[in-house]
Amino acid sequence: MGGHISKQVEKRKSISTEKKTLVDLKESCGCDFPGADYHPSDRKNWMAGLDLGKLTINKIVWPGTHDSATNKIGIPFISRPFAQCQSLSIYEQLVKGARVLDIRVQEDRRVCHGILKTYSVDVVLDEVEKFLSETKSEIIILEIRTEFGHDDPPDFDKFLIEKLGDHLIHQDDHVFDKTVSEVLPKRVICVWKPRKSAAPKKGGRFRSAGYLKDNWIDTDLPSTKFESNLNHLADQPPVSSRKFFYRVENTVTPQPDNPILCVRPVTDRIHGYARLFIKQCCERNIADRLQIFSTDFIDADFVNACVGITKARIENI
User: Fold this and answer.
1) Half-sphere exposure of 237 (CA within 13 A, CB side)
2) CA-based, 20 to 30 A from 60: which of 28, 34, 74, 302?
3) What sign does the dihedral 128-133-135-140 (CA atoms) show?
4) pTM of the complete model beyond 0.85
């Protein structure tokens, strides 16, 4: 018992120290970066507010959501706080400005997060369709994967084609160098990551797992995650020479060795440092590697930061 308490005390000290590290870094270097002052007048149509003839797919810093379809997962006030990473619906996230969705499914096509499940993936796709019908120039990256420990939904690729076929941007390595105006009217880049079924083939309507990569760091320590994200990003080639998407997640994750297991208070340790992260990318000369930037509980300022650095890229600021 004494050993357990001692570990808890040390863990709390580590968390406090790491939180202070980020506070001190923010105070010492600030959060100013090219495009930092830009605020899109309409986040629902923020791509349309940029120069679509200059906005190539690889120059976009894509604001994304982590575990996107968890707004109604589990039982309210009981299991939901342990798995909910977004409070907004898929449609509301897209209106807020999110352009990358992270969807996990199980064999019955229901969205899940670990052992907890929520509504059918049809809800996700219907809300994507609603958003697409209300906008004209917004491109979405839709990542759908079979959750660990589950089987793939039967004939899921055929199901996705039935739901999204007219919107899907076919797999093509040249797409990264194309402008949004060249890609339109197609609107959805779909990455399908089955666990047991055959991976999508080149040239088809879907992209395989190799087209959206990340380095997941499973920690609840904010400075550890922050620095690890920077180090892994530094190892990536610049977006101009990459033929895949690379994601950085501005999140930390509850751990079983800490009494705080609810997602929100844990991920809040890093949530407010998205602008600091972009600033550090610029300071360390790795801003040309930043591409997909995801978060829990997406908000307007996170989107503004991603859109601002995107605007600066296409204007060569």
Assistant:
1) 8
2) 28
3) positive
4) yes
Cα gap 219→240, rounded to integer Å: 31
Of 244, 234, 246, 294, nearest to 270 by C-alpha is: 294
- Residue 6 has a pLDDT of 66
Residue type at position 52: L
Q: At residue 4, does pLDDT exceed 60?
A: no
Q: Could you say which DSSP state residue 40 is in?
A: -
What is the spatial distance between Cα 56 and Cα 241, in angstroms, rounded to a whole number? 13
The strand pairing partners of 120, in sequence order, are 110
pLDDT digits 0-9 by tens, 185-204:
999 999 999 999 999 999 99
- The whole-angstrom separation of Cα 122 and Cα 108 is 11
DSSP assignment string, 271-288 = HTTHHHHHHHHHHTT-GG
- CA 24 to chain centroid: 26
End-to-end CA distance of the chain: 57
- From the number of C-beta atoms within 10 Å of its C-beta (0-12, 13-18, 19+), residue 37 rates as exposed
DSSP state of 179: B
Domain enclosing residue 90, as ranges: 2-314
Closest CA to 45 of 10, 94, 85, 1: 94
Say whether 37 sits in a helix, a strand or coil: coil
- Cα–Cα distance measured from residue 215 to residue 154, given in angstroms and rounded to the nearest whole number: 29
Question: Which positions ≥6 away from 190 have C-beta within 8 Å?
Answer: 142, 143, 144, 160, 164, 168, 169, 205, 206, 207
Binned at pLDDT 50, 70 and 90, residue 11 comes out as confident
In 3-state terms, what secondary structure has residue 14?
Answer: helix
Q: Which residues pair with 62 in a beta bridge?
A: 292
Residue 240, C-beta contacts closer than 8 angstroms, at least 6 positions apart? 58, 288
213 token code pair: 């990569």
Q: What is the CATH number of the domain that holds 47?
A: 3.20.20.190
Segment (H or E) for 210: none
